[in-house]
Amino acid sequence: MPAPGGEPSTEEANDDRAFRADVNAWMQAHLSGPFADLQHRGGPGDEEHAPALRKDWERELAKGGWTCVGWPRAHGGRELSIQQQVIFHEEYARAGGPGRMGHIGEGLIGPAIIAYGTPEQQQRFLPDIVAGRTYWAQGYSEPSAGSDLANVQTKAVLGEDGRWRVSGQKIWTSLAHESDWIFVLARSEPGSKGNKGLIFLLMKLDQPGIDIRPIRQISGGCEFNEVFFDEAICEAGDVLGAPGDGWKVAMGLLEIERGVSTLGQQMHFAFELETVVAAAKRSGRICQPAMRSRIAQAWMGLVVMRDNALRMLADGSELGLRREALIYKYYWSNWHRDLGKLAMDVLGPEGSFISDDPVTRPLQQLFFFSRADTIYAGTNEIQLNLIAERGLGMPREVRPTS
Questions:
Q1: Which of 36, 125, 254, 347 is the most exposed place for a label (fewest CB within 10 A)?
Q2: Per the residue annotation, which of 58, 106, 257, 272 is the catalytic one?
Q3: 11 is catalytic
């Protein structure tokens, strides 16, 4: 089954076709030898795979100039057009490029530092992200502030020495145990509520007062962590934006998350769908009309997903997002969860037992991890509120006043 929308267009400009060939050739030459084991590994549900080798891969990408490809040249990037960024992410995924250890730095905090950081912060933090030397974790969710991010209770208190002392807890922190820095949304104004009185902090993880504890998942992995802060220090110069502007910075960062890299995510989805189809052929269940119909529906859903992702991107050279971006998380998370169900049904009864078989195990991991897709990064219910209120202009849902 061909990857939906993933084949190069015959109408693609000569320069873009040449660029696509360059990316493909580099990936074929470098995702080999010691890195061959990384093909199609390290994605969601598999993020614990070979972290040290994947950090080496990040540095290999950096040597080739393939990190931060959309960043401005002034900050170490290639300043590629939207079209060429799409091509890069597609070819990276098509070649089986591993899940990016540098994704949080390159795709989230780096662009936020470019947008909101001081020149000094940009000079200190951005080069190490580009070079694959520094890795970041995201400190947003808390036990009582997941989808309702504005309810964060982690506190930042300004000391007489100008440094901030941070106390509280973050949860579901991806790869915190493999990261060097964490960005933290905290409450800096006592008595403030909701999205007021927040601060956006850049903090070293290797310091007294920070305790990282792994969370073991149903899939067996523990790439997520709880991070506890007990009077941990954020230096005075490591506040992104002004105190009180934390919500503005946090929301700007989340808009970046809906950007061009989603095309790469979809290429990985296409690979997973092809894996499901191959399993259905091996088991003979591909001959069942109901199963064939579900596979066809999954394929069509992926085509629609790609077309909407292209609609999301601005027509110009900027990475600005349009209103269509509001439906993206809701759409892909439900589609992917259904793909996980399809994977288990393709396996049949034998899929009910945890297996280390290299054919069976990836499909089981797909099922286990995809159960969380409609919860993390904003539940279905929160996404529907955003679509209704921000996209359609409907009245806001009644919220408690206390």
A1: 36
A2: 257
A3: no
